[in-house]
Amino acid sequence: MPLLRYFVCVGGVLLALLLASDAMLSEHPLPAVMNATPVFPPARIHSDRKWPEAVVYDTGVPKAKPAVIEKAKPKDASRKWMEFGFALSSGARSMA
Length: 96
Known about the structure:
Elements: H1 2-24, H2 32-35, H3 77-95
């Protein structure tokens, strides 16, 4: 809690100084030179650099439709194992 007490005390002192300085210091009108808004000449900037033409995208053209790809049908698992077993048995016969 000492940190909170520090901020409350210092903040209170700073606020009191601000209010006291506002009440004590008188407001003098500014000189006319400081009140007038400056008149600047218009900015006329010309460049020798020529940039490329702006790119215009034609968004009115319809998009191409993606090709429809059918999914491959899975083979029958039992048939696959039977073919594998047949290949093994025929290979075993040819080696014997």
